[in-house]
Amino acid sequence: MKVIITGSTGLVGSAVIREAIANDGITHAFVLSRKDLPKEISDNAKVTVIPHADFSKYPEDLLTQLAGCEACIWAIGGRAPHFPDLDTFRKVSVDFTLAAARAFKQRLAPALADNQRFRFVFCSGMLAEWDQQKSLLFMADSRHVKGQVEKGLCDLADKDGRFDVFCPRPSGVLPSNVSTLGKLTGKLYGAIQVQDLAKALVYIALNGAEKQIIEAGELTSLHK
After folding, report:
1. Residues in domain NAD(P)-binding (predicted)?
2. Taking the complete model, does pTM exceed 0.85, yes or no?
């Protein structure tokens, strides 16, 4: 399978690239990135790094390069406090993600063979909330925006066509070099190590899932 990967300089996206390289089910990874990547990634035969400055636009020449891809693992986002303001967080999380999904649904999915479906895998977050009017006691901005993205993507999903959407919801992501204390603390809130999350995301890209929303506890069975 040829796959598109975003968020390449982040914790999750970089781990997804490493897993894509290691996984025999992935034949090639097209990495959309604003920044240059380490040579061990950019020089790998399984990887094509495509410089992409504006994630709100997907011109024809870019879509031509991505022709034949059957999945996208979207790892751009994070939590609201990581951004300078809510508007920026919403633009990066909602606008960029939905712009890509619409472009891939319109141009890449219909060009696949009759027995193939395009899978858009959005790395969301635990307790994402679709109801934008619901009052939340904690992490309200992050949960509302993640929920807005999920709903927008699921509205784009086409059961009768060739565009599927999956939204895994990790509760927290631990780096690969996390300490023993960090692992123990992570267990308290169901965190997953980044390499295991990457395996789960690649698994979903390759095989799909029974449900569009994949809760944190369900991810552990997808990285074995």
Report:
1. 7-142
2. yes
Q: How far apart (Å, rounded) are the C-alpha atoms in residues 18 and 224?
A: 16
Q: What is the pLDDT of residues 47-57, one digit of tens each?
A: 999 999 999 99
Counting the structural domains of the chain, the total is: 1
Nearest Cα to Cα of residue 31 among 47, 20, 45: 47
Name the burial class of residue 182, with classes exposed (0-12), middle (13-18) and buried (19+) by CB atoms within 10 angstroms of its CB. middle
Question: Between vectors from CA 153 to CA 224 and to CA 155, what angle results, nearest 5°?
Answer: 125
Task: Summarize the confidence of residues 115-128 as an average pLDDT.
Answer: 95
pLDDT band at 224 (very low <50, low <70, confident <90, very high): low
More confident residue, 222 or 67: 67
DSSP tag of 222 = G
Average pLDDT over residues 135-159: 93
Q: Residues 31, 8: contact at Cβ < 8 Å?
A: yes
Structural domain range at position 74: 2-222
The CATH number covering residue 82 comes to 3.40.50.720
24 contacts: CB under 8 Å, gap ≥ 6: none
Calculate ∠ Cα 83-89-95, nearest 5°.
150
